[in-house]
Every structure is written in C-alpha cells, then in structure tokens.
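User: I'm curious whether this sequence folds into something compact or stays loose and floppy. Could you predict its structure so I can see for myself?
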Amino acid sequence: MTTTVMYKGSVREWIGKMPEWKKHEVVICAFCDGSEVQMLDIEDHWFDNKTPGFAIDLEYRIKPEEPKTFTCNGFEIVDDRPITMNEGETFYISAPSAPRFFFEATIGKTFINGEIMARGLIHITPEGVRAHAKAMLGIDPKGEENC
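Assistant: Here's the prediction. I'll summarize afterward.
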C-alpha cells in the first residue's frame, strides 16, 4: 500500500502502514533528506542502519553529530566556544588561577574584550571552560584530580 504524505511542502511516497509513519515521521523525513539513521539493538546500543525498515516495534533515531573539539596543551577539549553572543547570555571566561578555573559573566552587564573572544577563552558551559583552563595548566581535564 502506498500512502502519500506531505513533508515541508514536498510530497513523499510512503510504502507502508500509517502507524509506522506516525511513530517514525521525524526520522523518516530526515533520512529522506540525507541524514544518517541509527537503530536500537536488543542490548540497548545504537548502531548505524543504512537501510532502515522503520518497523513499528523498533526504535530509530537520527545519528547524532560528533561534537567539535580542539586541542589545548595536548588535551582534546569539546569545543563549546561561541562565535557570537547576544545581550543577556551567560558566558564563562577561562581563568586558570581562579579557584573554579573560570569567571562567570553576562553580556550587557560585563564588558567583553574582543581580544578575549578572539583568543578563544570564552565558553558557554562551565564544564567546557573548566576543561580548557585545566588543559592550559597541563592538568588532564578528564582526570579525577581534586584541583
């Protein structure tokens, strides 16, 4: 049975039952647009599925993108440094000598030196800025050290 469905103004031909379509609609549309799909196995592990069948009793998801990273002092850090920021947003500045390894501020209440932004010292999460500051000191950001 073929069912014609609409997705973002374009017509899609769905060969299957409507319950499967309704359950997996977001993933099916992303797959049709070229996204990679993963399926959950019986041991609760996600694996790549190049030809998903979208069975109603199985779970599918759009494959998550690998986080971008950068290297600091030989340590790989997840890159959460912003490109731009808006008034009212909270940000964190790397400060290796500070007790928490960072300072917290908000756009509009604190002046941001363009040079600090250009040097990549501003992050959007405390975890990212703390890892960056530790790496600057040569401390493994993923280590269990009590610093």
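Summary: Residues 69-136 form one domain. Helices lie at 18-32, 114-118, 126-136.
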